[in-house]
């Protein structure tokens, strides 16, 4: 479990299920959509031809039809397109053309190859892309339900709806984050080594609430230097009691920003970080292992008599490390225990904490399949096997 101050927005729309029934108004007249038909498999589907243009990321493309527009979309804009996609063996896995309906979606909310590639296009243009697996859905994984490996797409850009922008009268941080002070605070500002407690409401640019700390039992507390850089910069400039509205860049959100109303409740010195376990890289020989693959070792015996169930709410102190010894989260350094429904966290926690009694402290080595999955650069989440020290303080129920 990561006690992140603000949860990153997930990819909102995939290219294969982007809604297209109500295309947004385009900044330029949209071309008439093609009639419903079954696209032909490209003869060069297996590999990009010699005359294709390749970007630094490895994305290859070739213009099939010149466009009529003069503007290119940004990652924050919403686009309307017709497209078809094939695996390199010529199998078509998705097509808005065959459905007879164009698709509309925020450009920052799809696979990286689409986000990059469509920013090369103008309205009316049709282009073929060869997208390497690291910019698409990853390698071929049997039974995953998603196409893997390099993918080939034909994409026609029909329209662009420009994203709304922050108001012109905002101030900006040194890093360029727009904000307005809505209530003045008092006193000193927090230092980078302190734990801050704050309330926030996060909305999309069209006003949809995606997260609200006031619906939680208590406001979040987190070391200031563990916040996302843009949010940390905003809060570092605030005083206790101050409230700000800010526009945090988030390409995957509709409009490209999260509008956050933030109140700095308090801040305090951070407790010292727990020492990195000597056996963080691999479970020792005396660790026990469950059938699912979780290794665990008792550090401190408990005083309780019963184990929590998956349906219970528990209160714990914990610290988590990747196997290279990097601590990515800790309730100990925040000086506040975490409370949560045991069935609402990663599988390794749900299973592992049920082995414990109140007062017990245990170390877990949780394989990636029971944690957050493999290492994915830029995802903002720890990957691979994770190591946690967990102390069960209370079964709240």
Keywords:
Chitinase A, domain 3, 7-stranded antiparallel β-sheet, 3 domains, globular, mainly beta, 397 residues, 33% strand, 21 strands
Structural write-up:
By secondary structure, the chain is mostly beta strands. The protein has three domains: 1-162, Chitinase A, domain 3, CATH 3.10.50; 171-269, Roll (Chitinase A, domain 3), CATH 3.10.50.40; 288-395, Roll (Chitinase A, domain 3). The chain is built from five helices and 21 strands. It has helices at residues 96-99, 112-118, 229-236, 331-334, 347-353; strands at 53-54, 60-65, 78-87, 92-95, 103-106, 126-131, 151-161, 171-172, 178-183, 194-203, 209-212, 221-223, 243-249, 257-269, 288-289, 295-300, 313-322, 327-330, 338-341, 361-366, 386-395. Strands 1, 2, 3, 4, 5, 6 and 7 form a seven-stranded antiparallel sheet that branches. Strands 8, 9, 10, 11, 12, 13 and 14 form a seven-stranded antiparallel sheet that branches. Strands 15, 16, 17, 18, 19, 20 and 21 form a seven-stranded antiparallel sheet that branches. The radius of gyration is 25 Å and the shape is globular. The two termini are 19 Å apart. Residues 1-34 have low confidence and may be disordered.
| Assembly form of the protein | single chain
Give the CA-CA distance, first to last residue. 19 Å
What is the CATH class of the largest domain? Alpha Beta
Domain count: the total is 3
What is the arithmetic mean of pLDDT? Answer: 89
Question: Structural class of the helices, strands and pairings?
Answer: mainly beta
Helical content stands at under 10%
What CATH calls the topology of the largest domain is Chitinase A, domain 3
What radius of gyration results from the CA coordinates? 25 Å
Shape: globular
- The portion of residues forming beta strands comes to 25-35%
**Helix count?**
5
Q: Provide the low-confidence segments as ranges.
A: 1-34
Largest sheet: 7 strands, antiparallel
Task: List how many beta strands DSSP finds.
Answer: 21
Per CATH, the architecture of the largest domain is Roll
